[in-house]
Design a protein that fits this description.
The chain is α+β, with helices and mostly antiparallel strands. The chain has helices at 2-15, 24-41, and strands spanning 44-54, 57-59, 65-71, 78-81, 85-88, 95-105. It has 2 helices and 6 strands, in the order H-H-E-E-E-E-E-E. The strands form 2 sheets. Strands 1-6-3 form a 3-stranded antiparallel sheet, with no helix packed on it. Strands 2-5-4 form a 3-stranded antiparallel sheet, with no helix packed on it.
Length: 106
């Protein structure tokens, strides 16, 4: 394993000279990353909905995850519990809202 790492580092060093401003390997990795990201993004869609409830808790529907929360009574303190529930941390909340999203294949 150590030998493989050493060989990899030697190959990278050959591509990236110490005095070079840019590295050909950087360009290759950047291009490859953009290609993969583009291919993945063409196959998925982001779907978001709003959920709200009275009180300090609101759950996102099945399959959705909370990406942000808002609270009544000018409360700015909230957290996401169990990867499913928005919780407003201030006392005596009159309402709580969540932005719930899911990623799906097209």
């Amino acid at each position: 394993m150590k030998m493989r790492v050493a060989v990899l580092l030697a190959v990278i060093a050959m591509f990236c000279a110490a005095d070079a401003q840019t590295c050909a390997l950087d360009d290759l990795m950047s291009s490859l990353t953009k290609s993969v990201a583009s291919a993945v993004l063409q196959k998925v869609t982001l779907s978001c909905i709003d959920a709200s409830a009275r009180g300090s808790l609101v759950d996102c529907p099945a399959g959705y995850k909370p990406t942000g929360c808002s609270c009544g009574n000018a409360c700015g303190s909230w957290d996401i519990r169990n990867d499913q529930t928005c919780h407003c941390q201030c006392a005596n909340q009159d309402w709580t809202a969540a932005r719930c999203c899911k990623i799906a294949l097209k």
